[in-house]
Amino acid sequence: MSEPARAFSAFEWMLCRRYLHARRKEGFISVIAGFSFLGIMLGVATLIIVMSVMNGFRTELLSKVLGFNGHITVVSLQGPLQKFDDVVERISPVAGIKSVVPLVEGQAMASGVRGNSGVLVRGFRKKDIATLNGIGNSLRAGSLEYFSSKNGVLIGSRLANKLGVVVGSKLTLISPRGNVTPFGVTPRIKSYPIAAIYHIGMSEYDAGFVFMPLEEAQLYFNKGEGVSALEIKIDDPDKAQEVRRNIAKVVQSPVNISTWQEVNSSFFSALQVERNVMFLILTLIVLVAALNIVSGLIMLVKDKSGDIAILRTMGATRGSIMRIFFITGASIGVVGTLAGFVIGTVFCAYIENIRQFLSSLTGTELFSPEIYYLSQLPAEVNPTEVASVVLMALVLSFIATLYPSWRAARIDPVEALRYG
User: Fold this and answer.
1) CB-hemisphere CA count at 13 Å for 397?
2) What residues in the chain have per-residue pLDDT under 50?
3) Cα 375 from chain centroid?
4) Which pLDDT does position 418 carry in this prediction?
5) Contact of 11 with 317, CB cutoff 8 Å
6) What CA–CA distances, in Å, run from 156 to 81, 88, 209, 228, 376?
7) 3-class SS at 381?
8) Which end of the chain, N or C, is less packed with Cβ atoms under 10 Å?
9) For 362, phi and psi rounded to 5 degrees?
């Protein structure tokens, strides 16, 4: 009984190993194969690392932005939103809404021991500020106990360091829109005790926001009994547009309703464009490595034309010759892709430790929070994207072997032996 035919025979694998481990006089072939292997490995690893970092960067920014701000914002078109409790009662029953928070917002100058800094002041009720992601669970010092009872304020860690203040110190706020007098509007200057200092890891919020009790913010910014806006959080942020339409049906007063996608559209669109461009650029690394496989195999075919002719005269078919060189080139691509996959995923798993090590080694800050907004380097590995990168590298490697393999199979043994 004859054995079943196999796609790749042991004879073909043996020749493939011999060609990849060339003798000293044919060492240039091994050098080209080594560079092709390194190119594919680095290309795949770099693609996985960069895409994972950009995914993590987007996820971290999105979680902090949405945790700090509402998914939907309702702002009155006629000055401060009066009788906001009635509006809250009408909005709250809308399907998909998790919470509705009234707030007062205004700009001011914060002054401390070391200097001044422009800040955005936000007024919240005590029960509402405790629900903000990144505030109630990230206090570095102090507590929310004195937030409303003694008109204490909350500030970020970077703002506290910049102004040289601590919990219990006085923070002076200066607003250009103060009291109206016969001589014009005078600035409003008032000091508040610091109740707590928070740190959420996003430099923009840690350095530029001050939180105060809602009632005090209404007095400070001359809002009367009204508020600046209502911030709404929903169960599924991706359904913000649908919930927005439902809110518009129940709100009777003239208001402007905006979603987080509209407010941050340019920022997250820029991230998406940058991510796509980086993918295309880094794909060129894999493409160049695949071209190295083509050049290496063509040189190998030319060098082994005499051997190919002898194999043909001994009974080797064109298909067998083609498979030998296909295995030779594909082996480089497969091994390089798998090595790049392992390096990329391991690098992403320990990327923050690697960043800290390189920072201490070079004495520089490789991931500045002032530039990138986050205090740590995030990485989120997406299995679908990793699979697409690996598949792309394998396909390019296989395609790169087709022409040299076909060329080897087309060699005429008579002509090769005559002129070899």
Assistant:
1) 27
2) 1-5
3) 14
4) 61
5) no
6) 28, 29, 7, 22, 17
7) coil
8) N
9) -95, -15
